[in-house]
Amino acid sequence: MYRFVVVAAWVLLSFGYSHGAYLTDLHRRLDWGWRFSLDADYTALAPGYDDSSWRRVDLPHDWSVECDFGYNPGCTPAAVGWYRRDFEYDPWDDCDRMLLYFEGVYMNSEVWVNGHYAGGHLGGCAPFYVDMAPYLKPGPGNVIAVKVDNSAMGDRNPHSGAGICRSVYYTGAPRVEIIPKSMEVTTPVVTADSASVNVRFLVENRTDTVASLNMNLNSVIPDRGSIPIKTEFTAAPHDTTEINMSFMVDDPAIWSPDSPVSCFLMARLYQGNDRIDTEILRYLIRRLEYVDGVAKLNGEPIRIVGACVDHTNGMIGALGYRDAEIRKAQLLKNAGFNAVCMADSNPPSPAFMDACCVHGLIVVDGVDDTFDRWSQSEIVPFDYAESDTLKSFGEPAAIRITVDREGIGSGDLAYALVEIVDSDGNLVTDADNHLMFEANHKGSVFAVGNTDLPDCHAYNSSCEARKGRALCVLRSVLGDGDFELRVTSPGLPAATVTLRRIIRII
């Protein structure tokens, strides 16, 4: 049963700006310390199962990108994989549920906690969560086991990943809470002078008594300040209450592909003076319409220049790393696109959706024939292939490394372009030298490749240059100290590059 509470306000912007993260202070990342096997069966769900021989992995993880391609180009073998991890449970005050949240698993998954089935998800890459609380015991010795099965895919389908390919978190859920992922923000009216913002979310009360609650919203808008909104309401016992709040924004920061301004909404739920739950959400002040065959953004016609992409990230496979998703969005925007549509049936990662917001890409939600309906005259040709007629310069003389960043945080990715150049620093476009990549103990060589599909591998440390170039994906490890990459090739002097260690605050 649902109850409804509505509050509306017109507020002028107050001064002050704070940047919020998408994960609140109640979330804990669970990406490190897993074990993985392709040879296990259901005996692996037992807490006492011996997994000491299993491979140690960190998440995100895609086992298929390590495999040889099948008889169809771009296709990898299907299999069933198992993951296990020990979990120390410290019960949280006032929390009756302990949620294990998966950003995406490919494909069909089952989650077991201490030998008990806790839930799962059919299909690939959609986020889901399970409640671990009924099966946990206080202290160490708890075991999470996850079965991932993409065997039904066979090896006839293009690579779509296999494994827990996105991050995993856990969080305690209070007995009175904002239902996870229930918050929705819409902007039905957007003009240059003002914009209306509607906020909807669900509050669940799993206690035996009526809860008197306060909801404090704070909308943060860059270069404009913040808007505080408050409302009081009651939540009936063992019931769900729908809350609808609205406010007006003067002089709004309107989002467009040329001015991709994001706003943030922080919702804090209070019972008395105690903050019992928090949700944070990015939202955009914009209005998209399709009127009489014309696409309009914020009331003005817009020519959609779109690309169909899938959820994977090249030679690192389906791994949903934040840095890889940002790079994909940057490359699309730099190529002249202002919109993207997911070309496969798998939902994009939260990191890619955020990157599209930040870099000015409109995301066409859902898989349909949206792009196929464009007239041929509206399709903008784009050549992804590098020209085969590049001028070739002198003989290989050196290795040049160009990295996409100066610093790297723990667990982050960096992309290094490696080029074979002549004595004058010109690219030798017919060079096919064998390249070997080595990282110091502060990081690892995560993947190498050269645009030739069979020669692109994750967890490899060497490849041939193609047209004088290769790409290396680096991953830092936890801890302090700078990250160094060293690249060697027979007959050429070694080249090194150093990335300073930075602390990134999410």
Summed up:
It is built from two helices and 35 strands. It has helices at 322-334, 350-359; strands at 2-10, 27-29, 34-37, 55-57, 80-89, 95-102, 108-113, 116-121, 128-131, 139-149, 168-174, 176-178, 184-190, 194-205, 211-221, 225-235, 239-250, 263-271, 274-283, 288-291, 294-297, 300-301, 306-309, 339-342, 362-364, 398-403, 407-408, 413-421, 434-439, 443-449, 457-458, 462-464, 469-476, 483-489, 492-501. Strand 30 and strand 31 form a beta hairpin.
What does this protein structure show overall?
The chain is mostly beta strands and 506 residues long. The protein is 5% helix and 45% strand. The protein contains two helices and 35 strands. It has a six-stranded antiparallel β-sheet, with no helix packed on it. A hairpin with a 3-residue loop joins strand 13 (184-190) and strand 14. Mean pLDDT is 82; it is low at 1-23 and 367-392.
Name the descriptors.
mainly beta; 5-stranded mixed sheet; disordered N terminus; 2 helices; single chain; 6-stranded antiparallel sheet; about 500 residues; 35 strands
